Fold each of these.
Amino acid sequence: MIGEWIHSHVGVTLAVTVGGYLITAVYVPRVLFRKSEPGATLAWLIVILLFPYAGLLFYTVLGTNRIRRRRAARREYDDQIEAGLVELLEPDGPGGRPAAPEPWIDTTIFRVARNLGLGNGTAGNDVVLYADGPAAFAAMIAAIHDARQHVHVEFFIFRHDRTGERVLDALIAAAKRGVEVRLLVDAVGLAMTRTRVKFFAPLELAGGQVTRFLPVGWVRGWSFFNLRNHRKLLVVDGDVAFTGGMNVGDEYAGRRRRWTRPWRDTMVRIRGPAARALQAVFARDWYFAAQESLADQRFFPAPEPAGSDVVQVVPSGPDDSLLRLHRHTLAVIEAARERLYIITPYFIPDPALASAIALAALRGVDVRIMLPLRSNHPMVKWAGRSFYEELLEAGVVIHEFDEGMLHAKALVVDGLVTSVGSANMDIRSFRLNFELNIFIYGSAFASQIEEVFVRNALASKRVDPAEYARRSLVQRFAETTARVLSPVL
C-alpha cells in the first residue's frame, strides 16, 4: 500500500516537473520575441521560470495581445470600412479643414504628428471645458435630449446607479422618439462595477442597440481580459461630441458613493469638424465589437465651423504598433520651453516618459505634476510614488490632491498646447488600453486647464523632497515592490 502511494506520487511529481519544463521551454521564447519593454519582459520571465503553471495562466490573461491577430484575421473587412471612413472624411482632411501650424507652436510637434499619420488637426472647432461632474452630465443629457438622428455612446464604466439611470433614461427617451441609439460598453468595466447587462434591456426594448466590447466568458475571451476599451465618448448627430475622463457613475457626477467624496474629473464638449473625427473613432470601435458598418454619409454631416479652436483627435490601442498617443505626448513634452503641467490619477511612466519629464525640468522648464493623495488603486499609487525621488531631484514639483479622488487627465505645455482625454500617464494607457485623447492648440483653452491646476493646487499638499527622503522603510518597501510589478499593473 505504501509502495503504491509512493509510486503514484512520484509519477505525479514527475509529470508536474516535466510539464513545468515544457511550459518554460515553450513560453520563454514567446516572451522574448514579444519585443516589449525590458522591465515587462524580465517580470514575465521571472514569473514563468519560478511558477510555470501560475505564470502560464497569468501570461495568457494579462500578457498576450491578441488584438492585432484578431484584426489581421479579418483585415479585408477592416480595410473596407476604413476605406469608407477615409472617403467620408475627405477631401477636407481627417475630420474637416486641416489646420496650418501656428507660428507660436513648436513646428516639431506638427512634424511628428504628420509622420505618425495624425495630420495637423482641424480648425474651426468650439471646445467647452467641464471641470465638475454636475455641469458635465447636465450638458451630455441635454445633448441627448436634443438629438434628431442618432446618439453614439461609448464608456468604460456605466454604473447601475442614479447617474447611470439618468443617462439611460435619456437614451431610452431618444430611442422612443425614433433616434438611432448605439451604446458600447466595456465588458470588464461592467463586471468591475457589477452592472448587469439586463440593466440596459429597456433601451433595447425601445429600439436602441447595446454591445459589450470584448466580452470575457468562463471559457472564451480570457486572452482579451487585459486589453480594455477605456475610452469615454458621446457623439450626437455627428456634429457635437463629448470626451474626457468621466465614466457614467455617481462619483463622476459629483455624488458621494458610500464613504468616498465625489471625484474630481474633466470632460469637454466639441462642436465643429473634429466631431466627425470622433465619430470615426466610435465607428471603428462599433464595427470591431458589433460588426456593423457606420461608414455612411448620414453619420458624417458636412463639417461647419463652430469656433476658433484647433483640435487633433488621437486614439490609441493595443492594435497601434506606432504607439501614436505615447509618441505624440513625448513630442509635446519635449517641446516645452517655459512650463509643463500634468494632471493624472495614475502615474506609472515608462523610461522614455519619465526621462522626458525629468529632462524638461533639468532644462529649466517649470514642471508640475498633480496626483491624488488617496487613490482607489493603492498598488498603482505606490508604484507612482516610486518615481518621486528621481523627479524631485530633477526639480519637478509634485502636488497631491487632498479633496477626494482626482481622476482628471490633462497636460498643458507653455499655455499653448493641451491634451485631455481618457489616457493616464501610465504604461497601461499607452500600451494596453484603447484610449482617446484630444490635443487643443491655442492659449484660450490652455489657460482654462492651467486655472484648474492652480485651483486644485490650493486643495493639495506639495511633496517636500526632504520630508519624502525621510519616509519609512515600510513605504520604501511598498514603493519598490509596486515598481517591480508596474509593467503588469
Note: The radius of gyration is 24 Å.
Amino acid sequence: MYRHPGHPNSILGDFELVVHKNRLHLFHLCLPNHDLVAHLVSDDGLTWTELPVALRVGDPGEFDDDQIWTMGIFRRHGRFFMLYTGKKLSEHGRVERTCLATSQDLIHWKKYARNPVAEPDPRWYVAANTKDARIQWRDPHILVEDGVMHAIVAAGANDGPLNFCGCAGYFTSTDGRRWEVKPPLYRLRLSYDFEVPCLFKFNGKYYLNGLPGSQLLNCYRVADRLEGPWRRPAHDRLIGDGNYAYRPVQWRGKTYLMSWLQHGEADWAPGVQGGRVIVAPREVAAGEGDEIYLKSFSGWAQRAKGTALRPRPGDFLKSKLGSWGEWSAEGQALRGMADCGYAFRLLPEIHADFIAEITIEPRGAREFGLAWRSDSTADLHTAAVCHPAYAEVSLVRHIAFAHNPGGLRWRGSAKLMTNHFDYHGAAEAGRPGQSIRLRVVASGPYIEVSLNDRLMIVQATMSRRSGHIGVFVADGAAQFSQMTILPITPPHDDFVS
C-alpha cells in the first residue's frame, strides 16, 4: 500500500500502470490541483519509489494550461505514448479533451505539438459547452490489439437524458498520433457518468470496468468481441465500496487489477479525513460463466518473517485470554459454543503484521470469524465477521476513545466494509456443513479478507498496531481448524506514527 508522504494525505488520484523491464511503473494525478502527473516504480508491487514528475500543466494558452486529469499509457514500436486529459483556463475547465505525450524511457516526456488528438464528436456525444453539462471526455485507457490502439474515455452520449448519458467513449489509431473518434463502445445508462473506464482481455473474453458516477461502486461488463454486444453479469461488482478507479496490468504471467482506496475516517493517520492510498495488486480469476473475481496478491508471502505458526486446539484451550463461552477440542478442531451473544478465545502470542488462514465449519452459529490486534480481554480488536444468514462478511473495528476531558472512555464498534458471498458465486459458503477458508492479511493499516480464495474486503484501519489473534462465535456453534499464522514485514512503516 502506498500513500503520498506529504500533506494532505488525499493528494493521490486516479492512476495508470505500465510494465517495463519487469518493473511496475505507476503514474498518478495529484489532487486537488490536478497540476502534474507523478511517477512511482516498484519491483514487488508492494513497495514504491518516487521518480521525477512525468508531466505538468501547460503554459498559458495551451490545451492543458488549467488542469491535467487521468491518463492512459501504451507502448508502440519501442516508444511510450501517454494519452491524458487536458483542460483550458479560458474555458473554465468545463471542456475535456485528449492530449498526447511521448517518451523513450518512461522518465522524460514530451508533449505532442498538435494537441489535442481527440475530442467528442457531436454526432454521438454531448459536445456543447452549456450551463447544463460540462463536456466529458476524460480518463483514457488503451487496449492494443492486432496493431490497433483502442481507446476509451468517460464520455456523455447525446441520445438520452443527461442524468443517464454516461458511456464509454471510443476512438482508435494505428500510429498513436492520429485518432478517429467513433460511436460509444458501451452506453451504461445508469448515471450521468462512467468514470475511469478500463478495458482488458482475460480468459478469451473482453472486460469493461468503470465507476457509475452516481453509485460510487465499480461495475464491469463482458463481451466475446471488442465491438460487443456487452453483457451485464448477474453479479457485476468486485470489492466493496471504497475501492475505486481500477486499472489492469499484465505482469509476470498474470492479470492484475489495482485501485486506490478512499477513507472517510483515516484512523491510521490521526487527524486526516478522506485519505487515499494505492493498494496491493489483486489477481483476476475466472468465476462462474462470464464472471470474474479477485484473489489476494501472491507476493505477500515474500514478506514472510520467520516460519508459519500452526496453533492447535490445545494452544487455544491453555490460554485464558478472552475466554468467553464454551470451548472444547474435537479431534484436530476447536469447537466454540455460545447460547447467547459471543464466545471468544485468544492465543497468547502478540502479532502486528501477518497472514492468517483458518478453516471454519458453521454449526448453526449466527456469526463467526477471526479477530486480531486484540487486547487481552477481546474488548478492543479488529475482526472479520461472517454472517451466513445474510451471506455477508464484514470488517469490524472495536475501539475505545476519550469521551471528555475528565478521562471517561466510550466504547463501541464500526463496520468498515461489507461484501456478500453470493456476489461471487459462493452463496453456500458459511452455511451448516459447508466449511469455509478465511484468510486475513494485516500489514500496517492495510487489511485484506478473503473467503474461499476470493478477495472480499480491502480496507485500511490501525486503531491498534498489534495484539492477540483469536476466534469467536455468536449465538450457536462453529468449529475451527487448520489455522496458520505467517508473520510478515510490512512494506510501509512510514504509515506508523
Note: The mean pLDDT is 88.
